[in-house]
Amino acid sequence: MSLATLPRLRAPSTLVLGGTLLALIVVAAIVGIWVTPYDPTLFAVRFRLQPPSLAHPFGTDEFGRDVLSRILAGAHLSLATGFGAMAISLGVGVPLGLVAAFHRGAVQEVIMRAVDLLIALPPVLLGLLVLAVTPPGLFKTIAAVGLVYVPILVRLTRAVALGLLEEDFVQAARARGEGALPILWHEILPNAWPPIIVECGLRVTFAILLGSALSFLGLGPQPPASEWGLMIAEGRDFLTQAPWVCLAPGLSLCVLLVSVNLVGEGLRERLDPHLQGRGHA
Amino acid sequence: MPDALTLTDAALKIEALSVAYPSRGGWLQALDNVSLAIPPGGVLGLVGESGSGKSTVVLALLGLLGPAAKITAQRLSYGGHDLLREAPTLRGRRIGVVFQDTTAALNPALTIGSQLVEPMRLHLGTEPRAAWQRGTDLLAELGVPRPAQVMKSYAHQLSGGMKQRVGIATALASEPDLLLLDEPTTALDVTIEAQILSLLDELRVRRNLSMLLVSHNLGIVDRLCDRVSVLYAGRLAESGTTRDVLHRPRHPYTKGLLAALPRPDRPHAGRLAPIPGGLPDLTRPDPGCNFRPRCAFAVDGCEKPQALRGELHEVSCHRVDEIADQEWPVEPAPVATGKTARKPLPLLEAEGLSARFGGGGWLARMLGKSTGVLAVDQVSLSINTGEVVGLVGESGCGKSTLGRLMLRLLPARNGTLNFDGGPVEPEASRDFRRRAQVVFQNSGTSLNPRQTVGMILGRAVRWFDMARGPAVATEVDRLLDLVRLPRAYAARYPHQLSGGEKQRIGIARALASRPDFLVCDEAVSALDVSVQAAVLNLLRDLRDELGVAYLFISHDIGVIAHIADRIAVMYQGTIVEEGPVDDVLHPPYHPYTELLLSSVPLIGRDRREPVAPPATGTPAASEGCKFAARCPRKLGPVCDTLAPPLQQAGPGHAIRCHIPLPELAAVPHWLGSPA
């Protein structure tokens, strides 16, 4: 039986559900940068801490700002933190991992020991370290979170590449006299990216969470920006009187995380060769 | 020898066993109406290609097929017990099993002793202390040296042969009277295999064991079994005594299997006879003869259902009498493209190549604490243009390492390499890379799974500038033609190809640069006999068409004898004998060559015992002969202390041994016809 007769690109239902949710959030985030029901920064002290109603579906905060508008206006910040940080980790971690796998010896030792050093620090602490020495801001948060996840990608990429380097098709490329770059580009990367992408899909969740945590601690975007972690921090004081100020950004974060996780899980199902049932020939 | 009459009181009786698995394409008919019987003390061999359903029979007998499988049988009984219901209580108790993969069959986290004691305690209720003692005795009975010590060791501390002995011991621990052997020697070297086979033969007599031997290797079946059943795609093709089935095969499939087998006792036997095609789709079983599409004797009438017919020798073929005297036809050679009868010139000459492995990391190396193993020790080997040199030896002898040294894929510690008159530097030139290529064993991992065949071949074509632009596709077509595959295969991915087809792509990739020299590293070892024959024929034709020289590395001396012009026998990093095929396969032999040849299970050889190496030996001293510790003909201390001289036994035939040539020449001819 040949796999050619089967539809090769049947997407798992988790991927469809997660992808749809994530697409909605992304659209909302892009729209939210320009258009929101109310001005997200407009104070309306008369209407402060109003419970959810038709006029304000998610209620208002301590300054009377519309929570829904603020969430929409801040969505792009969380998304940017998650995906931006992952892009940085990918861009730095994957090349370093490949180099470490290809050049055993001193180069590998330097890279891997540096990675061990970074891994030894707890993520929040590492983020704090980076942000504490410079004034906070969105791009700094992204860079800090990205740095936190570099070691994981270096290790993963190296482990995958080490396995692949032993394969005979790499030996065949060596027998053709190919050097490091063509082998890495043509033989290793196409086979290494599925596990890396899957890992990234799952790590985006952590990155968003870490970004929000840093904002919560006051080290992310500064008020009046409506980063979700920051919104939770601001609403914390009114938790008993007006729980919606905290709950709304919290739940939004939750939905975002679930959708990203579903996409990651779906990607794993789609790309993991062990779950794919290859090799029927 | 038991005959059909005693089968009525058979110990194991299988009647009309059918097994189907659910699969994506529907129900997959793994076994279809299979009947087998084993009398007490009898040994039945079950042979067939991979995917024919051999292992399914074993799993069905053990009741281990899983809940999804649909099993029907008129009868599946063992000693009066219905296995369909009672298999879980009988397996491990009265039915013992030995599996192929010795490493996977033993638990790496438990001592050998605790694994051996467990079945005795579970099934026989033996006291721990008594069980331990019995385990030790059992190991001793199976020829394990220092059994008390082995009981306390872990699986990774034992060699492959020892692990298989332990595997047999665990199967025997609960005193079963039926032993199921699923490819028990396939993972072992031929010398170890011979020892295990002798052991099984002894056990069967001593303990009156019944055995079911599942194997793809017809030689070991001939060595061990009374009766043989041939399975093809879930159905029995032929069943009878070993002598009848393997020496006077009547079913076309059996004839084909035997014709496809390369045999060391018939070197340069011309072309082998492969069986074309592959296994049929088991989700849509053919109501007629299921071998019909591949059969050389198929005619109208084959589409009717075929029943097993015959008294003692059953065959499921309606033409059995018409084709009784016909051999399986040999695949015609392609039209000879004028084999250039060039004068052979030295092409590749290796002089004193060595390689050392291991010895800790870079830190240990910098501190000068490197130890390590000398995998190849000062080997010199030369290959002429258009010549096939076979390199044979047991696993771990350094033959693959030598192959890679000769391609400069591994750095050599010392020695020189000359190619076509000029030296090859450690950083090989692009020209050398183009002219010297390699074909790997494992067709599964030798092709990049993310690239189509066209991309794989096209990449090699472009890399060596053999063609540019649209001409690349033409060149890919030419390569596919060369390995006799349809051009449409360029669009396929490796997982859409069969094992034999993948191996052809591996060969085509190596040929993309139009090389003069190919290293074939166990290039046919992972293939079924019928497919292996086709690939061997292809390699032979390519040699004739293109004049490529091969270094053909294999552990299978039959394959080597078939394809090689010259043979080099390797043992622990040194070449102990080298010469033209006929000289190496005839006495005088190096004692190691003799051990190898006497161990090969050959169909039709009388059951004489192979040369028995001493059970234990002290590790070879660095000075003396490396084979001294295992040598059955060891002279004395001189073998341990002095490097053996290279004796010239004939033109181009050299033996590295202390024993005088006349004495080496006086040994029996191991591949001669049975007396």
What are the key terms here?
heterodimer; A: 281 residues; mainly alpha; MetI-like fold; 10 helices; disordered N terminus; disordered C terminus; B: 675 residues; alpha/beta; eight-stranded mixed beta sheet; seven-stranded mixed beta sheet; 23 helices; 31% helix
Q: What does this protein look like?
A:
- The complex is a heterodimer of chains A (281) and B (675).
- Chain A has 281 residues and is mainly α.
- Chain A has a single domain, classed as Orthogonal Bundle (MetI-like fold).
- The N terminus and C terminus of chain A are likely disordered.
- Chain B has 675 residues and is α/β, with parallel strands linked by helices.
- In chain B, the strands form four sheets. An eight-stranded mixed beta sheet of chain B has the order 18-19-20-15-21-22-24-23, sandwiched between helices. A seven-stranded mixed beta sheet of chain B has the order 7-8-9-3-10-11-12, sandwiched between helices.
- Helices cover 31% and strands 21% of the residues of chain B.
- At the A-B interface, α6 and α7 of A face α14, β18, α15 and α17 of B.
